[in-house]
Design goal:
The complex is a heterodimer. Chain A has helices at about 20, 25-35, 40-50, 50-65, 85-105, and strands at about 35-40, 70-75, 80-85. Chain A is α+β, with helices and mostly antiparallel strands. Chain A has a single domain (about 15-105), classed as Winged helix-like DNA-binding domain superfamily/Winged helix DNA-binding domain (Arc Repressor Mutant, subunit A, Orthogonal Bundle). In chain B, helix 2 (about 30-50) packs antiparallel against helix 5 and helix 4 runs antiparallel to helix 5 (about 115-140). Classes of the chains: A alpha+beta, B mainly alpha.
């Protein structure tokens, strides 16, 4: 699913973009999780500015790709859902950002 | 998707969005500054109470105070919505540094310096340092 792979020399940097992360909402979710160990579902929802259902659907896609880990627990009596990037997710996001930088710098 | 034209402006906008989101997350993890400063100040007060109040009041009061402080901080940390990357490891380092300094102050203090104000004041400052330095470093991130 991921396209974060070694590119043949001279290939356009857009080939380094990750198809899973490339979608705007998923990109925002991953970008929100990147500087965090973990974040509450509600925090990500508020930061990315999407509805619960949209976030659930996109997180499910990221989870299936192995990029996001979802854990459920309680704080006191309140149920909480935590989201975190997996090591694969971090690597894919780093590669995706590298491809974006290459495109932005005009090498693409 | 790879066949689509992806303009450099789009890439720059995506990177800017990622930077913006990263800043928002970092602003939301500033609670860790308060956490560490309270940890530092609390440990200093605890050492002062332990060394300067007569026994057994010093041991009892400092234990109650420290349990309340650590318990309160644990609840405070658990209730936060986001934790910055690496904070758990950082916090472990803080606690190990604190533990080493605390023992370095406590053991000689209990054996040779009971009631010696200078020792316990200096010890309180020393024990408070990991939290205060950690809070300062965290604030500058």
């Amino acid at each position: 699913m991921s396209t974060s792979r070694q590119l043949p020399q001279g290939a356009h940097p857009r080939h380094g973009l990750d198809e899973v992360i490339h979608a705007p909402v998923r990109f925002s979710i991953v970008a929100t999780l990147a500087p965090a160990d973990k974040a509450e579902f509600a925090f990500v929802r508020d930061t990315v500015e999407v509805s619960d259902s949209v976030l659930s659907r996109q997180v499910s896609t990221l989870e299936k790709a192995g990029y996001v880990a979802v854990t459920k627990g309680y704080v006191g009596k309140r149920p909480r859902t935590w989201l975190a990037l997996t090591p694969d997710g971090r690597a894919a996001f780093a590669a995706h950002c590298q491809a974006l930088r290459a495109i932005a710098e005009g090498t693409g | 998707m790879s066949e689509q034209v992806y303009a450099s402006e789009d890439a720059a906008a995506a990177l800017a969005r990622a930077q913006e989101l990263s800043s928002t997350v970092r602003a939301s993890t500033k609670w860790s500054v308060r956490y560490q400063v309270i940890y530092g100040c609390g440990s200093g007060v605890m050492v002062l109470a332990l060394g300067l109040l007569g026994q057994p009041y010093g041991v009892v009061l400092s234990s109650i105070f420290w349990c309340a402080t650590v318990g309160g901080l644990s609840v405070y940390a658990a209730r936060q919505r986001v934790a910055r990357r690496g904070f758990d490891r950082w916090r472990s380092g803080l606690i190990i540094a604190w533990g080493l300094l605390y023992n370095a102050v406590l053991v000689p203090g209990m054996i040779w310096f009971q009631g010696v104000t200078a020792w316990w004041v200096a010890g309180a400052v020393l024990v408070a340092l990991p939290g205060l330095i950690g809070g300062y470093a965290e604030a500058r991130r």
